[in-house]
Design brief:
homodimer, about 300 residues, alpha/beta, Metallo-beta-lactamase, Chain A, 2 domains, 7-stranded mixed sheet
Chain lengths: ~300, ~300
């Protein structure tokens, strides 16, 4: 109960609009306790799951950043397959307004006749911050970012856990009962032999949950920095090198350097860069320009597992 | 000019509805003189082109059999990519009525703002036989086949070429002029020294063009046999083994044995079977049951090249 479960990020697609032999359309899986949250679902994502040894049946929610094809054209196939295999768990699909109609009206998809329970949560252009998914242990928030079309960035957060109980100290104070330990950990004081024992006497500070930010496609922006704030891992698009900085402005994307600046200003712990223009088959210059600014940068490698 | 150019069939996806690690959603490329005709376009087809060393820019036409997702969910991505790279050649998309709206209305696709010239040719349920594509050298015809939803099978045909000219015999008859050779080959008689030389005196029989039939998804049916008639190569779905013959009837598919019976009755030269149920990771039983009936059967292997 005390240990944080492992949380792993697996990039499945790190191409920008035009895929290459090595880089697939956008998708990143977050694996925690055997369940998956999926960020973007570019064409072929269900096939990338097979190649990664992951099961699409384990997906609880899909978070689509925006309705450009390279970020959601894998969703019809994913939904169809889950529907055909009669998955019974509910599936949450979060994305910009219009996503429900786009998926539900495609010939070959019959959500009405399917037993797959799909809940669409649509983000409207007026949104500021919206919690789009939550369980007892984690939540995901969305914020608008700055692309040519409406796009949202996401931040996955594990809720903080109570601090560790200093059992030795508690025993010195006469606390020996398991229920009393639980009470103290959950923040309540207890009475022992007429004395009050308060949580702060025996329980360490809250252990903050880990966090992951998924920020693509966008210009570097304030909401990007907010989503990335102190995050354990940030995936930020880095479509271009400095040489094509004007392209980045024109097309609503970021350079690798700009992605690194977001991570730096947000005091993120680690940065993964991806969504590279097809011209950068070799990402070493993107890597160099990012690490100039933020040392703890890695080039997102498809199917590699990154622990939070 | 006399030689037939090579025509090659490359299966890119041979899964049925649910893809596996080894088998991808339906798609088969026909390669001829550096250009491609594409039969079905399941999810990931543009990625399979990269893996096969083929260029999507070379596609002249796409023929979709029916609007189940595993046969066309790769089309939005294919059209988007061709549009983004500003391809100028026209693209013909043939498929059941509804396909134009399904593709053109997807968010992220803006055919109106694209320079890609797309022509949709829609097949209606009342169609009997329809020539859906033709050039000076080849044509493709569609015929309805028997699935749960409206589906079309396709037959690619190279137009026949004139027979070989027997130059020695022509010289014996006094024909020495190149223009006269051309006239005879194109079926006209000529006069030499007051004598009439007719084509049948010096030109062999027409050389029939090669043909390829693409027949999926369907029950074995009369139009399947017509499409496969004397074809050099037939791709026919073979979703199930004999053991699941009732499934084939219920779901509008064929067993491997039924596919072979179609090839046999059509007097086809070679049969490729594919579209296997995900349960048949090992296709050897499908192969056995088909070769029981039609010896010249092969299991369609993805990315392998089959010459007509």
């Amino acid at each position: 109960m005390g240990q944080m479960p492992e949380t792993t990020i697996i990039p499945l697609g790190t191409a920008s609009a035009i895929p290459t032999r090595e880089r697939h359309p956008s998708a990143t899986a977050l694996l925690r306790k055997g369940r998956v949250l999926l960020f973007d679902c570019g064409e072929g994502t269900q096939l990338r799951f097979l190649q990664a040894g992951l099961k699409i049946t384990r997906i609880d929610a899909v978070f689509i950043t925006h309705l450009h094809g390279d970020h959601y054209f894998g969703l019809p196939g994913l939904v169809s397959t889950l529907s055909m295999i009669n998955r019974a768990d509910p599936l949450t699909i979060v994305g910009p307004a219009g996503i429900a109609e786009a998926i539900a009206t495609m010939p070959g998809i019959n959500l009405d006749r399917s037993t797959l329970p799909v809940e669409f949560i649509e983000l409207h252009e007026t949104v500021d911050r919206q919690v789009v998914y939550e369980t007892d242990e984690v939540f995901v928030e969305a914020r608008p970012i700055e692309h040519r079309t409406f796009a949202a960035g996401y931040r996955f957060v594990e809720r903080s856990k109570p601090g560790h109980l200093d059992v030795e100290r508690a025993r010195e104070l006469g606390v020996t009962d398991y229920e009393d330990y639980r009470a103290l950990k959950s923040g309540r004081s207890i009475q022992v032999d007429g004395q009050t024992v308060t949580p702060h006497m025996v329980v360490g500070p809250d252990r903050p949950g880990r966090s992951f930010a998924y920020i693509t496609d966008t210009r570097p922006c304030e909401n990007g920095r907010i989503l990335a704030r102190s995050a354990d891992l940030v995936y930020h698009e880095a479509t271009f090198t400095d040489e094509h900085a004007d392209n980045a402005v024109r097309t609503g994307h970021s350079t690798a350097r700009e992605a690194a600046e977001v991570a730096l200003h947000a005091e993120a712990k680690r940065l993964l860069i991806g969504h590279f223009s097809a011209r950068h088959a070799d990402p070493s210059l993107l890597f160099e320009e990012a690490t100039d600014v933020f040392k703890n940068t890695e080039v997102a490698e498809e199917l590699k597992r990154y622990s939070l």
